[in-house]
Amino acid sequence: MTExxxxxxxxxxxxxxxxNTLLADFLRExxxxxxxxxxxxxxQCGACVVHVNGRAVKSCNIFALECEGAEVATIEGEAAxxxxxxxxxxxxxxxxxxxxxxxxxxxxxxxxxxxxxxxEPTEAEIRAYLKGNICRCTGxxxxxxxxxxxxxxxVSNIAAE
Amino acid sequence: MSYHRPQDLxxxxxLLAERAPRLLAGGTDVYASSEGPGRPDGAELLDITAIxxxxxxxxxxxxxxxxxxTTWAEVAGxxxxxxxxxxxxxxxxxxxxxxxxxATVAGNLCNASPxxxxxxxxxxxxxxxxxxxxxxxxxxxxxxxxxGPRTTALRTDEMVxxxxxxxxxxxxxxxxxxxxxxxxxxxxxxxxxxxxxxxxGQITEAAISVGACSPVARxxxxxxxxxxxxxxxxxxxxxxxxxxxxxxxxxxxxxLRADAAYRAHVxxxxxxxxxxxxxxxxxSQPESEGEGP
Lengths: 161, 293
Prior knowledge:
The complex is a heterodimer of chains A (161) and B (293). Chain A is α+β, with helices and mostly antiparallel strands and 161 residues long. Chain A has helices spanning 23-30, 87-94, 104-117, 123-129, 141-150; strands at residues 2-8, 11-17, 49-52, 55-58, 71-73.
């Protein structure tokens, strides 16, 4: 067991964990932040994407101990404390960018990272950036549309599915 | 499992000498290949990514020093001349953005997969691998560093400190191409890199490598020599010679991703595409000695 401390969604946290505890498990089991989903557990699907020091990473592919001292942001930090959705979350709801919702936390966190580095991405740029996030329900059309809308772009010419 | 995260090189060297741990530098290959999804256990792990001296790309009159723990996202975003474009293009195709934020240059080399995307571009850049330990420092040419599938010249007490691209390889332009079952999050079926320097439309220097078609990625030295003095627009005329060298030096395998015949075929096509792109980049440069670091 080793002590680890980090900041998660602005809150300092500290715990003793076995050395091989993955960040995804630390978030879900120790902090009970179960919004971060583990789909494949092998870094393929992207449902577990969170931000570490502002960078999108797959939390099933990094130890909690590698995040010592880091600023971690998860899907739980997206909505305001009163429940008001973030612009990206609202756009996913408005444009039906989800069906079962399992991939959605990772999609939203990846979209957030994309818009931070590219505030007005083209459809092609969005699709390229989401290559590490897999959705098995809706396909990607409405997800891409939601992200374009969240970035303030007009999506009225893009047909909904 | 016990996990070590030293803050400086000296501590890392001591841990290496005393405990012979497995090195962790981003870990995106380590987790994915572990028994029991995502949880390496049993071994001791030495995470080198907290050591500041191992991060970043530094230009100097001798060339470029790429710190061992530099991530592929950092490589993709670095200000580098067209000769290093192949490396930046490979950086953008490794895994996905989330993987590129964690995966490192040294990790890619030391994992020593025959399909490591970082190796062909670094081969055409004549890269040297700098290693360190308590006892010795070494500079090893990349072509001698990776010795086989999953094996390197690294001794148990050594670690990679940096990868160096010499200034002499900073001339011209380069390109990288890979093919997989889909564009991203795949293990490459075949890949190629090429770097070219031209003068008045004639090729004065060419470097070509092919990955995922032999136990270790290979340079095509005979075809490189043949290209010297050729007009950059006439490369395709030499295709039979390219095919001959590919047949002689590659040993593609049949596996679940592709069969050997497909790999052999596609390798030639990827090399020609890289050469065409490198030629276009090289001939559009001013007729100077290229950019220094």
